[in-house]
Amino acid sequence: MTAILSADSLTIRFGGLAAVDKVSFEVQEREVYTIVGPNGAGKTTILNMISRINHPSEGRICFLGNDITEMPAYRIAGIGIARTFQNIELFEHASVLHNLLVGRHCKSRTNVLQELAFLPSVRKAEMVHREKIEEVMDFLDLQPYRDQYIANLPYGVRKIVELGRALCTEPKLLLLDEPASGLNVEETENVAFWIDDIKNDLGITILMVEHDMSLVSEVSDRVLAMNDGKMIAEGTSAEVQSDPEVLRAYLGA
Amino acid sequence: MRFVFKTSYNQDIQLFKHEGYWWSYGILFVVVATAPLYLGDFEIAELSQAMSFAVAGLGLMLLVGFTGQVSLGHAAFFGIGAYAQAWLLSVLPISFLVAMPIAAAMTGIIGLLLAIPLLRMTGIYLAIGTLALSIVLEQILKNWKSVTGGFDGKAVEPASIMGYQFNPDSWDFYYVSLAILILVLVICANLLRSPTGRAMVAVRDSEISARSMGVNVARTRITAFAISTAITGLGGALFAHKLQYLAPDGFNLIISITFLLMIVVGGLGSLQGAVLGALVVTLIPQAITVAKDYLPDAIAHQPGLEPGIFGLILVVFILYEPLGIYGRWRKLKLFFDIFPIYRKATFKRQKVFLKTERMR
C-alpha cells in the first residue's frame, strides 16, 4: 500500500475565515476514502483544492509523489485526477456521447490545423476515443441514453453521466462530490455497487465527499470527519461514527 | 418514424449521419447550383452577397453560438479582411484566390493578438470591448490613408483567373461565392466534430467542468476568437470583390449588429443557422423596399425604418423563437422523425433549481 495522494497541513482562508484549517491526510492506492461532516465543514473546498479550482493559502498537495500545489487546473485531468460535481456540471445542450467525448479531451493530441482539415490521423484518434467511451457506457449501463440530450434526462441519469465523463479521462484517482445527493434509495444502492466496481474492477482510487451515512459505511475503507474546517476524527466508518467529537459536531450535544 | 442503426464508430463521425442527409442536402445543392438558370441577374447578385455574409456569419457563429462569447465588433474583422484583400491585390501580382486565404490569415492573426487582452473579459464587458473595437477600426480606416485610401475609399482589383475576369453581379462570381461558402461550411463542421470544437462547446456550457476535464479554457477561447475572425475576414475578402469599391463607413457598428441579428434569427448554435440568417438579412431590405410602395408616406419615408425593423425582428425572435429559424426546422423534423411521441418539453428551456455560485 502506497499513498497515491497526500495533503499536508492544507489551509485556505476566504477573507478572515479559515474554511479549511491545517488538514492533513493520505489516500492509499485502491481504497475508498470518504470525507464527512456537517454543512460548511470545508469538504467540497478540499476537493476544489485538489482539482486546483481553489488555491490553498498554505500547505502542499502531492499526487503520486509529485507536488501539484502550483499546477494549473486544466492539467489535473491529464495527470490522472478526475472529478464530479455536487450540483452536476454537465454540458446541457449536448448529447451523452458528446459529454463523454469531452471527458476524453485530456487524451487528445491533435492540433487545430489538423482538425480543420479533419485529416485521417484525427479520424483515427476519434475512433480510439469512441472505443473507450463505449466501454464506459457498457460499464455504467448508459447505452439507452447514448444520443439523448442532457436537458432531456432525469436527475439520476445525469449523475451517472457525470460519473461516466470522469471515468472517460482514465483517472487513477476519482474525486466524487456527493455522488448520492438527490438520488432515491434504489439509485443510491446502484451508486454503491458502481463505486465497488470502480475500485475493484478498474483499480481506481476514490476520494469521496458524502452525507448519506448508509452509503459511506457500505463502501468506505477509511473515513475522515471534519467540522468547521478542522479534522476531528479519522478511521473506519464505525470508529468515526462512534467518536464523541463527531457526535457532538452533528448533534450539538 | 426513423430508426438509424449504428454499426460502426465512423457513422457518428461522418458529416452526413444517414442517407436521408445525402438526399436532402443533395437536392439543396442541385437547387442552389442551378439557380443561375432560373433566377435573374439581380437575384443572383443578391445571393452572392448573402453568401459572403453567410461566410462572415459562420465565423461569428463559431464564437457566439458555439463558444458563448459575444462580439459586437465583427464588422471590424469583416473590414480588415476586405481591406487586406484590396491592399494585397494592389501591391502583389497574385491571383485573388491566393490573396483570399492570406487576407483571412492576416485577419486571424490580428484577431489572435486582440483576443489576448480582450478575452480577459467575459459577458457584457467583452461585448463592450469588442464594440469599442468596431468604432476604433472605423477611425483607422478613415485616417490610414496610405493603405486604406481614407475617405476617398479604395478600389478593389477585379477578380480574375488567367485573364478571365469575373463579373461580381453575374453567375460566374456566384459560383466562386458558393464554392467558398461550401468550403467554409466543411471546415467549420470539421472543427466541431473534433476535440477543439467540443472544447469550445464545453466552455460555453460549463467553464468549471471544462477545466476539470482538461480543457485549457483561456486557450480555447483565444483559439475560437482567432478562427472566428479569420473566417469573418475571409467573408470580408469575398465581399470586397462584390463591392468593388471599399469605403470606411461600410464596416461600421450597424454591420456588426446585422451579423449578430443574422445568427440569432438563423439559430444560435447551428451552422445552418448562419446561412439562413444571411439569407433573411439580405432579403429584408428588398422586402422593405417593396413594402414602401404600399405604406403611407409618413411611415415609408421615416428615417431609420430599416434598422428599426431589424431591431423589431431581433426582439420578436428572442422572445418567441430563441432557437431561430433552424431551431424551428429542427423541431419540425423531430416531430416527423419520432412521429407519434413528440413532446413539446424536449426543447423547453429548463429552469435549473440546483445551482450554486460557490464554485466561481
Written account of the structure:
The complex is a heterodimer of chains A (253) and B (360). By secondary structure, chain A is α/β, with parallel strands linked by helices. Helices cover 38% and strands 25% of the residues of chain A. Chain A is built from ten helices and ten strands. In chain A, strands 6-7-8-3-9-10 form a six-stranded mixed β-sheet, sandwiched between helices. Helices cover 70% and strands 2% of the residues of chain B. Chain B has 17 helices and four strands. A two-stranded antiparallel sheet of chain B has the order 1-4. A two-stranded antiparallel ribbon of chain B has the order 2-3. The longest helix of chain B has 27 residues. Chain B starts with 9 loop residues before the first helix and ends in a 23-residue tail after the last helix. The C terminus of chain B is likely disordered. At the A-B interface, helix 2, helix 3, helix 4 and helix 5 of A face helix 1, helix 9, helix 10, helix 11 and helix 12 of B.
Strand order of the largest sheet of chain A: 6-7-8-3-9-10
Using only CA atoms, what is the Rg of chain B?
A: 21 Å
Succession of helices and strands of chain A: EEEHEEHEHHHHEHEHEEHH
The rough form of chain A would be described as: globular
Describe how the helices and strands are arranged.
The complex is a heterodimer of chains A (about 250) and B (about 350).
Chain A: E1 3-14, E2 17-28, E3 32-36, H1 43-50, E4 58-63, E5 66-67, H2 76-79, E6 81-83, H3 96-103, H4 112-117, H5 120-140, H6 155-168, E7 173-177, H7 185-200, E8 205-209, H8 213-219, E9 222-227, E10 230-235, H9 237-241, H10 244-251
Parallel strand pairs in A: 3-8, 3-9, 6-7, 7-8
Antiparallel strand pairs in A: 1-2, 1-4, 4-5, 9-10
Helix pairs in contact in A: 3-6, 5-6
Chain B: H1 10-13, H2 19-33, H3 35-38, H4 41-66, H5 74-91, H6 96-118, H7 123-143, H8 145-148, E1 154-155, E2 160-161, E3 164-165, H9 171-192, H10 195-205, H11 207-212, H12 217-243, E4 245-246, H13 253-266, H14 271-292, H15 297-300, H16 305-320, H17 324-337
